[in-house]
Amino acid sequence: MIYFYFLEDSSFGYYFAMGVFIAALIFITFYFAYHFVEILYVMKYNKPLFVNYYFHLKKLKEIQVEILKNQCSFYNKLNKKHKRYFEHRVASFMDDKTFVGRKGLVITDEKKVLISATACMLTFGFRNYNIAVIDHIFIYPDEFYSTSNKKYHKGELNPQLGALVLSWKDFKEGIENESDKINLGIHEFTHAIHINCLKKRDVSSIIFRSTLNELISIISDKKQRNKLIESHFLRKYAFTNQFEFLAVSIESFIETPLEFKAKFPLMYNKIKQMLNFNFAEY
Questions:
Q1: Taking 80 as the threshold, does the pLDDT of residue 5 lie above it?
Q2: Is the pTM of this model over 0.85?
Q3: 164: which strand partners?
Q4: Over the stretch 66-102, which tens digit does the pLDDT of each residue have?
Q5: How far apart are CA 112 and CA 44, in angstroms?
Q6: Which fold has domain 62-275?
Q7: How confident is the model at residue 7, as a pLDDT?
Q8: Which DSSP string do the residues of the chain spell out, in sequence order?
């Protein structure tokens, strides 16, 4: 009875409603089919089905691109297509965050671009890259006094307030010396990514958490842990807790990949998988 009633109703409202219903049905079917396929893909390859998809690529100002060319070695290792994606991500990250100078520090293009580039470098293998746990980035000229633990810090993450705090002096030193395995920006953004991935359920976060568990399992082995400690490849601070271990490990992964891969190939490959790093010579 209902079927024949619909056939006899030729009003615009009827056809519009049916169109909306069919479109919704197609969308839902496609949505679940896509997620099912991606789950199978992740299970087999341990990486997202795709990373970059954009209807429109944002552009940086010429002066901002020059900053990347002159001070971001990671950017210079990317191919032409990836450079455009990277520029888009840096522009989007800058638009998404509020940068605040402290102690009279003036926010410039250099500060915004280089800090954003560090974040986008670490998340370049992620589909979602804006690190939602951060809303504000506070920049001090030098070390700053933290009211949270009454000590001076070079960097600090406060996820409850959505704030990342950095010493500009130490941040720049981390960029300028690319072989000492100490990089404040990489270290603090790794903490932010770590916390963000613990909260989120997107595919990149799921891969990050799963691979991190595998990495922790590797270093939990007494023999492997002692080998790592005795090598002095990672500084002692890495063994404070799991968060510091990951941050220090990724500093080493980014700055000395060849040495890392040669000495601890299993750990290297786990971090590469965790970040989905398949570009810029990694």
A1: no
A2: yes
A3: 137, 157
A4: 999 999 999 999 999 999 999 999 999 999 999 999 9
A5: 38
A6: Cyclin A; domain 1 (1.10.472)
A7: 45
A8: -HHHHHHH---HHHHHHHHHHHHHHHHHHHHHHHHHHHHHHHHHHSS-S-----SS-----HHHHHHHHHH-HHHHHS-HHHHHHHHHHHHHHHHHSEEEE-TTPPP-HHHHHHHHHHHHHHTTT-SS-S-TT--EEEEESS-EEETTTTEEESEEEETTTTEEEEEHHHHHHHHH--SSS--HHHHHHHHHHHHHHHH--SHHHHHHHHHHHHHHHHHHSHHHHHHHHHHT-S-GGGGS-HHHHHHHHHHHHHH-HHHHHHH-HHHHHHHHHHHT--STT-
* pLDDT one-digit tens code per residue, 211-244: 999 999 999 999 999 999 999 999 999 999 999 9
Q: What are the structural domain ranges in the chain?
A: 2-45, 62-275
